[in-house]
């Protein structure tokens, strides 16, 4: 009888260990251009000790600023970006800039594209607004990232007056494009 109890204990430990392996440390999105905008890039979300960190790299029109947002839709149509839906806002707050008291969880900010057309934005979520787990309210998995043609003013509701959609990527495991 002692062996049966021991074996059950080992089985429980193995199940607990295997379910820990399902936790994702990184998810990403390959950003593809919409309507020949020339905008492309990659978004990588990584779990760190301080929170989920986004590194967003873009290539596009030289010497310009563009806005980036996480949107609530789960697909990119590459025609006008409308299937990405509106800004992701699970906390039902007003539009703003990342880091101010009230803002959408999808309000990432503006990215300057230099004289070579390259730019990078790094955002760290210290307030646990984002999760890489699939079945949570804060989950990024399946959402989209939209790059807009203009500058986000941080106040116009609900979009920041950021202009048309020029790039889109679906957030998931690996690169999910067209």
Q: Structural class from helices and strands?
A: mainly beta
Strand order of the largest sheet: 5-4-7-8-1-2-3-6
CATH architecture, please? Sandwich
Helix content: 10-25%
Tally the helices: 1
Task: Give me the CATH fold name.
Answer: Immunoglobulin-like
Shape: globular
Mean pLDDT across all amino acids: 86
Level-1 CATH class name: Mainly Beta
CATH superfamily: Superoxide dismutase, copper/zinc binding domain
Order of helices and strands: HEEEEEEEE
Radius of gyration: 19 Å
Unreliable runs, pLDDT <50, ≥5 residues? 5-21
Structural domain count? 1
Q: What's the total number of strands? A: 8
| Biggest pleated sheet | 8 strands, antiparallel
Characterize the structure shown.
The protein has 178 residues and is mostly beta strands. It has one domain: Immunoglobulin-like (Sandwich). Helices cover 11% and strands 34% of the residues. It is built from 1 helix and 8 strands, in the order αββββββββ. An 8-stranded antiparallel β-sheet has the order 5-4-7-8-1-2-3-6, with no helix packed on it. A hairpin with a 2-residue loop joins strand 2 and strand 3. The longest helix is centred in the first third of the chain and has 19 residues. It is globular and about 35 Å long.
């Amino acid at each position: 009888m002692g062996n049966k109890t021991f074996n059950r204990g080992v089985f429980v430990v193995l199940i607990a260990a295997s379910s820990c392996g399902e936790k994702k440390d990184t998810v990403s999105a390959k950003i593809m251009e919409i309507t020949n905008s020339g905008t492309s890039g990659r978004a990588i979300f990584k779990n760190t000790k301080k929170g989920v960190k986004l590194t967003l790299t873009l290539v596009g029109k030289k010497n310009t600023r563009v806005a980036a947002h996480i949107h609530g839709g789960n697909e990119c149509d590459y025609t006008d970006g409308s299937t990405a839906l509106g800004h992701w806002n699970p906390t039902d707050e007003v539009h703003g800039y990342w880091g101010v008291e009230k803002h959408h969880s999808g309000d990432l900010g503006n990215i300057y594209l230099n004289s070579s057309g390259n730019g990078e934005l790094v955002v760290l979520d210290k307030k646990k607004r984002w999760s890489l787990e699939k079945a949570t309210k804060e989950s990024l998995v399946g959402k989209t990232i939209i790059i807009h043609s203009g500058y986000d003013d941080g106040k116009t509701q609900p979009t920041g007056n950021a202009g048309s959609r020029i790039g889109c990527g679906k957030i998931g495991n690996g690169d999910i494009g067209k």
